[in-house]
Automatic annotation (TrEMBL):
It is an enzyme of class 6 (ligase). PROSITE patterns: ATP_GRASP (PS50975), BC (PS50979), CPSASE_1 (PS00866), CPSASE_2 (PS00867). It comes from Oceanibaculum indicum P24. Residues 120-316 form the ATP-grasp domain. It catalyses: N(6)-biotinyl-L-lysyl-[protein] + hydrogencarbonate + ATP = N(6)-carboxybiotinyl-L-lysyl-[protein] + ADP + phosphate + H(+). NCBIfam families: accC, PRK08591.1. One of its GO terms (molecular function) is biotin carboxylase activity. This is Biotin carboxylase. This protein is a component of the acetyl coenzyme A carboxylase complex; first, biotin carboxylase catalyzes the carboxylation of the carrier protein and then the transcarboxylase transfers the carboxyl group to form malonyl-CoA.
Protein backbone atom coordinates (compact mmCIF):
# COMPACT_ATOMS: atom_id res chain seq x y z
CA UNK A 1 0.00 0.00 0.00
CA UNK A 2 1.06 3.59 -0.59
CA UNK A 3 2.77 5.46 2.23
CA UNK A 4 2.02 8.97 1.03
CA UNK A 5 -0.56 10.38 -1.37
CA UNK A 6 -0.58 13.87 -2.80
CA UNK A 7 -4.14 15.16 -3.16
CA UNK A 8 -4.24 17.35 -6.26
CA UNK A 9 -7.42 19.18 -5.38
CA UNK A 10 -9.07 21.49 -2.85
CA UNK A 11 -12.27 21.98 -0.86
CA UNK A 12 -14.56 19.26 0.41
CA UNK A 13 -13.31 16.63 -2.05
CA UNK A 14 -9.69 17.08 -0.92
CA UNK A 15 -10.91 16.61 2.63
CA UNK A 16 -12.92 13.54 1.63
CA UNK A 17 -9.81 11.94 0.12
CA UNK A 18 -7.73 12.92 3.13
CA UNK A 19 -10.22 11.14 5.39
CA UNK A 20 -9.95 7.88 3.45
CA UNK A 21 -6.14 8.08 3.47
CA UNK A 22 -6.07 8.79 7.17
CA UNK A 23 -8.19 5.74 7.95
CA UNK A 24 -5.88 3.63 5.79
CA UNK A 25 -2.76 4.90 7.56
CA UNK A 26 -1.56 6.76 4.46
CA UNK A 27 0.14 10.15 4.90
CA UNK A 28 -1.34 13.02 2.94
CA UNK A 29 0.14 15.98 1.11
CA UNK A 30 -2.18 18.90 0.41
CA UNK A 31 -1.46 21.34 -2.37
CA UNK A 32 -2.94 24.81 -2.35
CA UNK A 33 -2.98 28.17 -4.02
CA UNK A 34 -2.11 31.30 -2.06
CA UNK A 35 -5.87 31.92 -1.71
CA UNK A 36 -6.28 28.59 0.11
CA UNK A 37 -3.49 28.85 2.69
CA UNK A 38 -6.06 28.61 5.50
CA UNK A 39 -8.30 26.00 3.90
CA UNK A 40 -9.37 22.97 5.92
CA UNK A 41 -7.78 20.49 3.53
CA UNK A 42 -4.45 22.23 4.14
CA UNK A 43 -4.94 22.36 7.88
CA UNK A 44 -5.72 18.66 8.19
CA UNK A 45 -3.14 17.21 5.80
CA UNK A 46 0.14 15.90 7.15
CA UNK A 47 2.09 18.19 4.83
CA UNK A 48 1.20 20.97 2.46
CA UNK A 49 2.83 22.74 -0.46
CA UNK A 50 1.81 26.09 -1.93
CA UNK A 51 1.80 25.63 -5.68
CA UNK A 52 0.91 29.05 -7.02
CA UNK A 53 -1.37 32.07 -7.12
CA UNK A 54 -5.20 31.87 -7.03
CA UNK A 55 -6.12 31.41 -10.72
CA UNK A 56 -6.58 27.64 -11.30
CA UNK A 57 -4.35 27.56 -14.39
CA UNK A 58 -1.49 28.81 -12.23
CA UNK A 59 -2.17 26.48 -9.30
CA UNK A 60 -4.59 23.52 -9.34
CA UNK A 61 -4.07 23.03 -13.09
CA UNK A 62 -0.35 23.74 -12.97
CA UNK A 63 1.09 20.32 -13.78
CA UNK A 64 4.82 21.13 -13.31
CA UNK A 65 4.10 22.65 -9.89
CA UNK A 66 2.08 19.61 -8.83
CA UNK A 67 4.74 17.16 -10.00
CA UNK A 68 7.39 19.21 -8.17
CA UNK A 69 5.31 19.12 -4.99
CA UNK A 70 5.00 15.32 -5.25
CA UNK A 71 8.75 15.00 -5.84
CA UNK A 72 9.78 17.27 -2.96
CA UNK A 73 7.47 15.52 -0.50
CA UNK A 74 8.31 12.00 -1.67
CA UNK A 75 4.72 11.00 -2.41
CA UNK A 76 4.04 7.59 -3.99
CA UNK A 77 0.76 8.45 -5.66
CA UNK A 78 -1.35 11.39 -6.79
CA UNK A 79 -5.12 11.50 -6.34
CA UNK A 80 -6.71 13.99 -8.74
CA UNK A 81 -10.09 14.27 -6.98
CA UNK A 82 -12.98 15.69 -9.00
CA UNK A 83 -12.76 18.45 -11.62
CA UNK A 84 -9.42 20.19 -12.27
CA UNK A 85 -7.03 17.53 -13.71
CA UNK A 86 -9.11 14.47 -12.83
CA UNK A 87 -10.07 13.72 -16.45
CA UNK A 88 -6.91 14.93 -18.10
CA UNK A 89 -5.23 11.96 -19.79
CA UNK A 90 -2.03 13.95 -20.36
CA UNK A 91 -1.77 14.62 -16.63
CA UNK A 92 -2.23 10.93 -15.82
CA UNK A 93 0.56 10.11 -18.29
CA UNK A 94 2.92 12.70 -16.82
CA UNK A 95 2.20 11.45 -13.29
CA UNK A 96 3.09 7.90 -14.29
CA UNK A 97 6.13 9.02 -16.32
CA UNK A 98 7.52 10.60 -13.17
CA UNK A 99 7.20 7.34 -11.28
CA UNK A 100 4.07 8.18 -9.27
CA UNK A 101 0.87 6.16 -9.35
CA UNK A 102 -2.15 7.97 -10.73
CA UNK A 103 -5.15 7.09 -8.57
CA UNK A 104 -7.54 6.51 -11.43
CA UNK A 105 -7.91 4.63 -14.70
CA UNK A 106 -5.33 4.29 -17.47
CA UNK A 107 -4.65 7.41 -19.58
CA UNK A 108 -6.05 5.55 -22.61
CA UNK A 109 -9.41 5.02 -20.94
CA UNK A 110 -9.54 8.63 -19.77
CA UNK A 111 -8.84 9.77 -23.33
CA UNK A 112 -11.38 7.42 -24.87
CA UNK A 113 -14.18 8.54 -22.53
CA UNK A 114 -13.15 12.21 -22.57
CA UNK A 115 -14.11 12.35 -26.22
CA UNK A 116 -17.83 11.70 -26.28
CA UNK A 117 -17.82 10.39 -29.83
CA UNK A 118 -15.18 7.72 -29.16
CA UNK A 119 -16.89 6.96 -25.84
CA UNK A 120 -20.21 6.28 -27.54
CA UNK A 121 -18.56 4.17 -30.22
CA UNK A 122 -16.81 2.07 -27.58
CA UNK A 123 -20.07 1.63 -25.66
CA UNK A 124 -22.06 0.64 -28.75
CA UNK A 125 -19.39 -1.96 -29.48
CA UNK A 126 -19.63 -3.21 -25.90
CA UNK A 127 -23.38 -3.69 -26.24
CA UNK A 128 -24.54 -0.59 -24.36
CA UNK A 129 -27.61 1.22 -25.76
CA UNK A 130 -26.93 4.88 -26.63
CA UNK A 131 -29.04 7.94 -27.45
CA UNK A 132 -29.69 7.95 -31.20
CA UNK A 133 -27.24 10.42 -32.68
CA UNK A 134 -24.57 11.17 -35.22
CA UNK A 135 -21.84 8.57 -35.42
CA UNK A 136 -19.16 11.24 -35.63
CA UNK A 137 -18.65 14.99 -35.62
CA UNK A 138 -21.11 17.26 -37.41
CA UNK A 139 -19.00 19.27 -39.84
CA UNK A 140 -21.47 21.55 -41.58
CA UNK A 141 -24.97 22.99 -41.43
CA UNK A 142 -25.96 20.83 -44.41
CA UNK A 143 -24.79 17.69 -42.63
CA UNK A 144 -26.64 18.82 -39.49
CA UNK A 145 -29.87 19.38 -41.42
CA UNK A 146 -29.65 16.03 -43.10
CA UNK A 147 -28.95 14.20 -39.90
CA UNK A 148 -31.60 16.02 -37.86
CA UNK A 149 -34.18 15.16 -40.47
CA UNK A 150 -33.24 11.49 -40.21
CA UNK A 151 -33.57 11.26 -36.39
CA UNK A 152 -36.36 13.82 -36.09
CA UNK A 153 -36.59 17.05 -34.05
CA UNK A 154 -35.93 18.19 -31.38
CA UNK A 155 -32.18 17.59 -31.54
CA UNK A 156 -29.33 18.49 -29.24
CA UNK A 157 -25.96 19.76 -30.45
CA UNK A 158 -23.28 18.67 -27.97
CA UNK A 159 -19.57 19.39 -27.66
CA UNK A 160 -17.38 16.33 -28.23
CA UNK A 161 -15.08 17.44 -25.43
CA UNK A 162 -17.94 18.74 -23.30
CA UNK A 163 -18.38 18.79 -19.55
CA UNK A 164 -20.27 20.72 -16.91
CA UNK A 165 -23.26 21.07 -19.21
CA UNK A 166 -21.46 23.54 -21.48
CA UNK A 167 -21.50 23.51 -25.27
CA UNK A 168 -25.00 22.03 -25.45
CA UNK A 169 -27.81 23.61 -27.50
CA UNK A 170 -31.28 22.40 -28.46
CA UNK A 171 -32.86 22.93 -31.87
CA UNK A 172 -36.62 22.32 -31.88
CA UNK A 173 -36.92 22.61 -35.65
CA UNK A 174 -34.79 23.32 -38.69
CA UNK A 175 -35.08 27.09 -38.31
CA UNK A 176 -33.19 26.88 -34.97
CA UNK A 177 -30.45 24.60 -36.22
CA UNK A 178 -27.97 27.14 -37.62
CA UNK A 179 -27.97 29.18 -34.43
CA UNK A 180 -27.77 26.15 -32.13
CA UNK A 181 -24.83 24.82 -34.10
CA UNK A 182 -23.00 28.11 -34.01
CA UNK A 183 -23.65 28.73 -30.29
CA UNK A 184 -22.63 25.21 -29.28
CA UNK A 185 -19.43 25.51 -31.31
CA UNK A 186 -18.42 28.89 -29.92
CA UNK A 187 -19.24 27.87 -26.35
CA UNK A 188 -17.25 24.66 -26.79
CA UNK A 189 -14.33 26.56 -28.30
CA UNK A 190 -14.07 28.99 -25.41
CA UNK A 191 -14.68 26.38 -22.69
CA UNK A 192 -12.62 23.46 -24.03
CA UNK A 193 -10.49 24.91 -26.82
CA UNK A 194 -12.16 22.42 -29.18
CA UNK A 195 -15.20 23.34 -31.23
CA UNK A 196 -16.04 19.85 -32.47
CA UNK A 197 -19.70 19.00 -31.94
CA UNK A 198 -22.03 16.07 -32.57
CA UNK A 199 -25.78 15.60 -32.56
CA UNK A 200 -28.20 13.60 -30.44
CA UNK A 201 -31.91 13.18 -30.35
CA UNK A 202 -33.12 15.53 -27.60
CA UNK A 203 -35.16 13.46 -25.16
CA UNK A 204 -38.16 15.35 -23.80
CA UNK A 205 -38.83 13.80 -20.43
CA UNK A 206 -35.94 11.56 -19.44
CA UNK A 207 -34.48 10.92 -16.04
CA UNK A 208 -30.72 11.02 -15.52
CA UNK A 209 -29.71 7.67 -14.08
CA UNK A 210 -26.08 6.74 -13.61
CA UNK A 211 -24.42 3.52 -12.55
CA UNK A 212 -21.38 3.39 -10.27
CA UNK A 213 -18.75 0.85 -11.21
CA UNK A 214 -15.61 -0.33 -9.50
CA UNK A 215 -12.97 -2.48 -11.19
CA UNK A 216 -9.50 -3.72 -10.29
CA UNK A 217 -6.44 -4.62 -12.34
CA UNK A 218 -7.27 -8.30 -12.22
CA UNK A 219 -10.44 -8.29 -14.27
CA UNK A 220 -12.89 -8.07 -11.37
CA UNK A 221 -15.77 -5.68 -11.96
CA UNK A 222 -18.78 -4.81 -9.79
CA UNK A 223 -21.52 -2.23 -9.99
CA UNK A 224 -22.84 -0.43 -6.93
CA UNK A 225 -26.28 0.39 -8.18
CA UNK A 226 -27.60 3.61 -9.60
CA UNK A 227 -28.03 7.23 -8.63
CA UNK A 228 -30.87 9.38 -9.88
CA UNK A 229 -29.49 12.83 -10.72
CA UNK A 230 -32.47 14.20 -12.62
CA UNK A 231 -32.82 17.33 -10.49
CA UNK A 232 -30.67 19.67 -12.53
CA UNK A 233 -30.31 23.32 -13.34
CA UNK A 234 -28.54 24.19 -16.59
CA UNK A 235 -27.56 20.53 -16.96
CA UNK A 236 -25.86 20.68 -13.56
CA UNK A 237 -26.91 18.40 -10.72
CA UNK A 238 -28.57 19.99 -7.70
CA UNK A 239 -29.81 17.03 -5.62
CA UNK A 240 -29.20 13.32 -6.12
CA UNK A 241 -30.76 10.19 -4.68
CA UNK A 242 -30.05 6.48 -4.55
CA UNK A 243 -31.74 4.25 -5.43
CA UNK A 244 -33.78 5.91 -8.17
CA UNK A 245 -37.46 6.15 -7.24
CA UNK A 246 -38.23 5.31 -10.88
CA UNK A 247 -36.52 1.92 -11.21
CA UNK A 248 -37.66 -1.50 -10.07
CA UNK A 249 -35.34 -4.32 -9.02
CA UNK A 250 -35.57 -5.99 -12.41
CA UNK A 251 -34.56 -2.88 -14.36
CA UNK A 252 -31.76 -2.20 -11.88
CA UNK A 253 -30.35 -5.67 -12.36
CA UNK A 254 -30.66 -5.51 -16.12
CA UNK A 255 -28.84 -2.17 -16.29
CA UNK A 256 -26.17 -3.33 -13.82
CA UNK A 257 -25.44 -6.40 -15.93
CA UNK A 258 -25.10 -4.40 -19.16
CA UNK A 259 -22.69 -2.01 -17.47
CA UNK A 260 -20.52 -4.67 -15.83
CA UNK A 261 -20.21 -6.55 -19.12
CA UNK A 262 -19.12 -3.37 -20.92
CA UNK A 263 -16.54 -2.48 -18.28
CA UNK A 264 -15.14 -6.01 -18.42
CA UNK A 265 -14.89 -5.78 -22.19
CA UNK A 266 -13.12 -2.41 -22.00
CA UNK A 267 -10.64 -3.67 -19.41
CA UNK A 268 -11.25 -0.53 -17.38
CA UNK A 269 -9.90 -0.21 -13.82
CA UNK A 270 -10.74 2.15 -10.94
CA UNK A 271 -14.05 3.79 -10.06
CA UNK A 272 -16.18 5.11 -12.89
CA UNK A 273 -19.71 6.17 -13.68
CA UNK A 274 -21.81 5.46 -16.73
CA UNK A 275 -24.49 8.09 -17.24
CA UNK A 276 -27.77 7.22 -18.91
CA UNK A 277 -30.97 8.94 -19.84
CA UNK A 278 -34.01 6.83 -19.00
CA UNK A 279 -37.27 7.37 -20.84
CA UNK A 280 -40.27 5.11 -21.46
CA UNK A 281 -38.55 2.10 -19.92
CA UNK A 282 -35.42 2.43 -22.09
CA UNK A 283 -31.86 3.37 -21.08
CA UNK A 284 -29.62 5.43 -23.34
CA UNK A 285 -25.93 5.92 -22.52
CA UNK A 286 -24.74 9.56 -22.74
CA UNK A 287 -21.28 9.58 -21.22
CA UNK A 288 -18.83 7.97 -18.83
CA UNK A 289 -16.96 9.79 -16.10
CA UNK A 290 -13.59 8.22 -15.40
CA UNK A 291 -13.25 9.58 -11.89
CA UNK A 292 -14.96 9.84 -8.55
CA UNK A 293 -18.28 11.71 -8.78
CA UNK A 294 -19.36 14.55 -6.51
CA UNK A 295 -22.43 12.48 -5.60
CA UNK A 296 -20.52 9.29 -4.70
CA UNK A 297 -21.50 9.52 -0.98
CA UNK A 298 -25.12 8.46 -1.60
CA UNK A 299 -23.82 5.19 -3.06
CA UNK A 300 -21.56 4.78 -0.06
CA UNK A 301 -24.51 5.29 2.27
CA UNK A 302 -26.66 2.56 0.68
CA UNK A 303 -23.83 0.04 0.17
CA UNK A 304 -21.59 0.79 3.17
CA UNK A 305 -18.59 0.70 0.82
CA UNK A 306 -15.97 3.46 1.01
CA UNK A 307 -15.44 4.27 -2.66
CA UNK A 308 -12.30 6.34 -2.12
CA UNK A 309 -10.71 3.61 -0.08
CA UNK A 310 -11.52 1.07 -2.81
CA UNK A 311 -10.24 3.43 -5.49
CA UNK A 312 -6.93 3.76 -3.64
CA UNK A 313 -6.75 0.00 -3.01
CA UNK A 314 -7.22 -0.93 -6.66
CA UNK A 315 -4.76 1.78 -7.76
CA UNK A 316 -2.14 0.10 -5.54
CA UNK A 317 -2.75 -3.15 -7.46
CA UNK A 318 -4.88 -4.87 -4.81
CA UNK A 319 -7.77 -7.06 -5.94
CA UNK A 320 -11.35 -6.19 -5.01
CA UNK A 321 -12.13 -7.74 -1.68
CA UNK A 322 -15.74 -8.57 -2.60
CA UNK A 323 -17.87 -9.75 -5.48
CA UNK A 324 -21.21 -8.60 -6.88
CA UNK A 325 -23.06 -11.07 -4.65
CA UNK A 326 -21.54 -9.43 -1.55
CA UNK A 327 -22.95 -6.01 -2.40
CA UNK A 328 -26.19 -5.36 -0.57
CA UNK A 329 -28.29 -2.24 -0.96
CA UNK A 330 -29.75 -0.86 2.21
CA UNK A 331 -32.26 1.94 2.53
CA UNK A 332 -32.27 5.27 0.72
CA UNK A 333 -29.87 8.23 0.54
CA UNK A 334 -30.18 11.80 -0.73
CA UNK A 335 -27.47 14.40 -1.28
CA UNK A 336 -28.15 18.14 -1.37
CA UNK A 337 -25.44 20.18 -3.04
CA UNK A 338 -24.99 23.30 -0.98
CA UNK A 339 -23.50 26.08 -3.09
CA UNK A 340 -22.32 29.49 -1.97
CA UNK A 341 -24.85 31.16 -4.24
CA UNK A 342 -27.99 33.23 -4.01
CA UNK A 343 -30.82 30.63 -3.88
CA UNK A 344 -32.95 32.63 -6.32
CA UNK A 345 -30.52 34.18 -8.79
CA UNK A 346 -27.64 31.67 -8.36
CA UNK A 347 -25.16 34.55 -8.27
CA UNK A 348 -21.98 33.36 -6.52
CA UNK A 349 -21.76 34.50 -2.90
CA UNK A 350 -18.19 34.01 -1.72
CA UNK A 351 -16.99 35.62 1.50
CA UNK A 352 -16.51 35.06 5.18
CA UNK A 353 -18.50 32.38 7.00
CA UNK A 354 -19.39 34.18 10.21
CA UNK A 355 -21.31 31.34 11.79
CA UNK A 356 -21.24 27.64 11.11
CA UNK A 357 -23.31 24.86 12.55
CA UNK A 358 -23.54 21.56 10.68
CA UNK A 359 -26.48 19.23 11.27
CA UNK A 360 -25.90 15.86 12.89
CA UNK A 361 -27.76 12.89 14.30
CA UNK A 362 -28.52 9.45 12.98
CA UNK A 363 -28.03 9.00 9.25
CA UNK A 364 -26.66 12.51 8.63
CA UNK A 365 -23.32 13.10 6.93
CA UNK A 366 -21.84 16.45 5.96
CA UNK A 367 -18.91 16.56 3.53
CA UNK A 368 -17.69 20.12 3.76
CA UNK A 369 -14.51 22.08 4.29
CA UNK A 370 -16.32 25.03 5.89
CA UNK A 371 -15.66 26.33 9.39
CA UNK A 372 -16.49 29.50 11.31
CA UNK A 373 -14.24 32.33 10.19
CA UNK A 374 -13.31 30.67 6.88
CA UNK A 375 -13.35 33.04 3.92
CA UNK A 376 -14.65 31.31 0.78
CA UNK A 377 -12.42 32.53 -2.05
CA UNK A 378 -14.10 33.78 -5.23
CA UNK A 379 -11.88 31.87 -7.66
CA UNK A 380 -13.29 28.36 -7.54
CA UNK A 381 -16.39 26.19 -7.76
CA UNK A 382 -19.22 27.37 -5.53
CA UNK A 383 -19.98 23.92 -4.07
CA UNK A 384 -19.13 24.31 -0.38
CA UNK A 385 -20.94 21.45 1.29
CA UNK A 386 -22.73 18.20 0.57
CA UNK A 387 -25.46 17.27 2.98
CA UNK A 388 -25.99 13.53 2.68
CA UNK A 389 -28.76 11.78 4.55
CA UNK A 390 -29.63 8.10 4.84
CA UNK A 391 -32.83 6.42 6.00
CA UNK A 392 -34.27 2.90 5.98
CA UNK A 393 -36.59 3.98 3.19
CA UNK A 394 -37.22 7.09 1.08
CA UNK A 395 -39.84 8.53 3.42
CA UNK A 396 -37.56 8.26 6.44
CA UNK A 397 -34.68 9.71 4.43
CA UNK A 398 -36.75 12.75 3.44
CA UNK A 399 -38.01 13.27 6.98
CA UNK A 400 -34.44 13.26 8.25
CA UNK A 401 -33.24 15.50 5.44
CA UNK A 402 -35.92 18.09 6.19
CA UNK A 403 -34.85 18.11 9.80
CA UNK A 404 -31.15 18.33 8.88
CA UNK A 405 -31.77 21.23 6.47
CA UNK A 406 -33.58 23.08 9.27
CA UNK A 407 -30.55 22.66 11.54
CA UNK A 408 -27.95 23.75 9.03
CA UNK A 409 -26.55 27.24 9.70
CA UNK A 410 -24.04 28.86 7.37
CA UNK A 411 -23.91 32.53 8.31
CA UNK A 412 -22.40 35.48 6.46
CA UNK A 413 -22.93 34.20 2.92
CA UNK A 414 -25.88 33.15 0.81
CA UNK A 415 -26.33 29.46 0.11
CA UNK A 416 -28.72 27.20 -1.76
CA UNK A 417 -30.05 25.67 1.50
CA UNK A 418 -33.38 27.58 1.18
CA UNK A 419 -33.87 26.07 -2.29
CA UNK A 420 -33.42 22.55 -0.89
CA UNK A 421 -35.80 23.27 2.00
CA UNK A 422 -38.45 24.37 -0.45
CA UNK A 423 -37.86 21.44 -2.77
CA UNK A 424 -38.41 19.02 0.11
CA UNK A 425 -41.96 20.30 0.54
CA UNK A 426 -42.88 19.98 -3.13
CA UNK A 427 -45.34 17.21 -4.00
CA UNK A 428 -43.69 16.10 -7.25
CA UNK A 429 -40.39 15.70 -5.47
CA UNK A 430 -42.00 13.90 -2.53
CA UNK A 431 -43.68 11.54 -4.99
CA UNK A 432 -40.40 11.01 -6.87
CA UNK A 433 -42.20 12.24 -9.95
CA UNK A 434 -39.69 14.37 -11.86
CA UNK A 435 -37.54 14.38 -15.00
CA UNK A 436 -34.38 16.33 -15.97
CA UNK A 437 -36.38 19.43 -16.95
CA UNK A 438 -38.67 19.45 -13.91
CA UNK A 439 -36.52 21.58 -11.58
CA UNK A 440 -36.15 24.44 -14.05
CA UNK A 441 -39.87 24.41 -14.82
CA UNK A 442 -40.63 24.43 -11.10
CA UNK A 443 -38.23 27.32 -10.43
CA UNK A 444 -39.86 29.25 -13.28
CA UNK A 445 -43.16 28.92 -11.46
CA UNK A 446 -44.64 26.32 -13.81
CA UNK A 447 -44.91 22.75 -12.58
P1 LIG B 1 -21.73 17.10 -19.50
O1 LIG B 1 -20.53 16.24 -19.76
O2 LIG B 1 -21.58 18.50 -19.99
O3 LIG B 1 -22.23 17.01 -18.10
P2 LIG B 1 -23.74 15.15 -20.38
O4 LIG B 1 -23.66 14.45 -21.69
O5 LIG B 1 -23.37 14.36 -19.17
O6 LIG B 1 -22.89 16.51 -20.46
O7 LIG B 1 -25.20 15.72 -20.17
C1 LIG B 1 -25.52 16.54 -19.07
C2 LIG B 1 -27.01 16.67 -18.94
O8 LIG B 1 -27.59 17.23 -20.13
C3 LIG B 1 -27.74 15.34 -18.77
O9 LIG B 1 -27.77 14.92 -17.43
C4 LIG B 1 -29.13 15.71 -19.28
O10 LIG B 1 -29.83 16.44 -18.31
C5 LIG B 1 -28.83 16.63 -20.43
N1 LIG B 1 -28.75 15.88 -21.71
C6 LIG B 1 -27.65 15.32 -22.26
N2 LIG B 1 -27.94 14.68 -23.41
C7 LIG B 1 -29.27 14.82 -23.61
C8 LIG B 1 -30.21 14.38 -24.62
N3 LIG B 1 -29.82 13.69 -25.68
N4 LIG B 1 -31.53 14.73 -24.46
C9 LIG B 1 -31.94 15.46 -23.40
N5 LIG B 1 -31.11 15.90 -22.43
C10 LIG B 1 -29.79 15.59 -22.52
Amino acid sequence: MFEKILIANRGEIALRIHRACREMGIHTVAIHSTADANAMHVRLADESVCIGPPPPNQSYLNIPAIISAATITGADAIHPGVGFLSENAGFAEIVEAHGFTFVGPSPDHIRMMGDKITAKRAMIEAGVPCVPGSDGAIESLEAAKKFAASIGYPVLIKATGGGGGRGMKVARDESQLAQALQLAKSEAKSAFGNDEVYMEKFLDKPRHIEVQVLADNHGNVVHLGERDCSLQRRHQKVLEEAPSPALNAEEREKLGKIVVKAIEKLGYRSVGTLEFLYENGEFYFIEMNTRLQVEHPITEMITDIDLVREQIRVASGAALGFSQADIKFFGHAIECRVNAEDPLTFQPSPGKVTDYHAPGGLGVRVDSALYTGYAIPPYYDSLVSKLVVHGRNRAECMMRLRRALEEYVIGGIKTTIPLHRKLLTEKSFIDGDYDIHWLERWMDGGK
